[in-house]
Amino acid sequence: MTNSNKFFSLVEALRPNQWIKNLSLFAAALLNGQLFDPEILTKSILAFIVFSLLSSASYLINDAIDAPKDRHHPVKKFRPIARGDISPFTAVLNSLLLLFIALSIATVVNPSFFYLSLFFILLQYSYSLFFKKKAILDIIGIAFFFIIRAFAGEVATGFHLPIWIMLTVIFLALFIASGKRRSELYNSGTKSRQSLEKYNKSLLNFYTSIFAVSTLIAYAMFTFFEEPVRFEGIIHNFLLSNYPNALDRKWYMVTLIPVIFGIMRYGQIIFEMQEGERPERVIATDLPLLFSVLLWGLMMMTIIYVL
Description:
By secondary structure, the protein is an all-alpha fold. The protein has two domains: about 140 residues, UbiA prenyltransferase (Tetracycline Repressor, domain 2, Orthogonal Bundle); about 150 residues. Helices cover about 70% and strands about 0% of the residues. The chain has twelve helices and no strands. Helix 3 runs antiparallel to helix 4 and helix 11 crosses helix 12.
C-alpha cells in the first residue's frame, strides 16, 4: 500500500463523519445568545476541535481492540484496521498523538475544560475495554458521552444550558443509543456484539419508545418554561411598535413542530427501515430528518438572534 493510501485509510479510521456529535458543544453559546461573541465562539470552536480529536483517539483504540470480531461483521469488516490497512500498533500510536494534541488545546480553553476532557477520554477508553460489553451499561455509556459533550460546552464558555434542555439531551441520547442497539440486533444478531446477547427485540422496542416519549416531553417543557433571550434588533423594534403582544408569546413552542417530525421520522428509520445502527450517517443523509434538524436550527436562530 502506498503512503497516500495509508494516509487516507488513517483519516478514514479517525471517523470524521462522527464529529457531527460534537456540534452539541455549541449549544450553550447558541441558547444563551452568545454564539457570535468572538471570545465565546473561539472557545466553542476550540472545544469542538478538542472533543473531535479525543473522539478519533478513542475510535482508533476501539477499532484496534475490536478488529478480530469486526472482520466477521457485514459492515465493520471494511474498517481500515479490520481490513488490514492499518496495524493496531499504528492505531495506538496515532491515538496517543491525538490525545496529546487535544489535551494541549484543552489547556488553552480553561483548566476545568481540560479536566473534563481528560475525564471524557478516560471514560471512552473504559467504555471500549469494559462497559460496551455489558447490557444496559453500553446504552447508558453512549448516552453519557452525549451528555458530557453538551456539558463541555457549558464548561468551555461559562454559560449554562437550561435544565429542560439537559434532560432533553439525556433522553434523546438514550433514544438514539437504544435505536442503535435495536438496529444492530435486527441486522446482525447477537454475534456482532457481546452486550446484544442480553437484549431481545421487545426490550429494545420498550427502551426506544419510552425514551422517544421522554425526549418529546422534556423538550415541550423547555419550550413552555424558557424565556427567550431579549435583543433590540430590527424585527424586535418593528413588533414592539406594531404588535407588542407578539413579544410576550412563548415562541419556543413553535419549534416543537420540527422536533415532533424529527422524532417520528427517526422512529420510522429505526422501526421500519432498521437503519439506526449508524446515527451520524442517518442524520447526515436522510433528507426529511436533515430538513427537520435544519428547520429547528433556523427557528431557534430566529427566535434568539432576530426577535
